[in-house]
Amino acid sequence: EHLFNLKFAAKELNRNSKKCDKEEKAEKAKIKKAIQKGNMEVARIHAENAIRQKNQAINFLRMSARVDAVAARVQTAVTMGKVTKSMAGVVKSMDATLKSMNLEKISALMDRFEHQFETLDVQTQQMEDTMSNTTTLTTPQNQVDMLLQEMADEAGLDLNMELPQGQTGSVGTSVASAEQDELSQRLARLRDQV
Q1: How far is CA 160 from CA 35, 44, 118, 137, 172, in A?
Q2: Model-level pTM?
Q3: Which residue pairs from 81-89 have beta carbons closer than 8 angstroms and sit at least 24 positions apart in sequence?
Q4: How far is it, in rounded angstroms, from Cα 41 to Cα 142?
Q5: What is the DSSP string of 21-85?
Q6: Alpha-carbon dihedral angle through residues 106, 112, 117, 122, given to the nearest 10 degrees
Q7: CA 87 to chain centre
């Protein structure tokens, strides 16, 4: 019953993570609309909401993985209990068989014994795989500005002049470098004349 509840909780957390992913996509769409309308304050609010939804999705996913790992541990403990009982039964049978020294029965018992250990190894490996699949979250400092720029790029708009940080865009840079090249050429011609 507890194992079922743990597995159900893991699925519920996973579902919540997917819901947050959908909310994040909806917020990104709202960012684009706000940028197109030139409303940067609203765009920034939607960007903050999108990042919060993304972080919640990751947190739900991480929690789901942890609950899943606990469920795997519980499953292993239950299995270990069953294996222990089975092994006790096998040992009793071995005692009786060894007394009669029937090699065929001894071989069959050893096969059953090895099968129990193989089952345990598979379940232990599955638990270790589940535990190693948990991830950590790292968050860059300027996510909001990067998301705003990304959404503006997708919408085909130039945000660079509107951002309070005064970022320069690639268009401004290329014009400046072209002017610099032209000035450098003129300077070189003047030097040649002198």
Answers
A1: 12, 14, 62, 29, 9
A2: 0.49
A3: 83/116, 83/119, 83/120, 86/112, 86/116, 87/113, 87/116
A4: 16
A5: HHHHHHHHHHHHHHHHTT-HHHHHHHHHHHHHHHHHHHHHHHHHHHHHHHHHHHHHHHHHHHHHH
A6: 150
A7: 40
> Could you read off the pLDDT of 82-110 as tens digits, one per residue?
877 877 777 777 777 667 666 676 677 77
Which residue is associated with the tokens 């292993």?
76
Tell me, what amino acid is at 147? L
Average pLDDT score, the chain: 76
How far apart (Å, rounded) are the C-alpha atoms in residues 7 and 28?
32
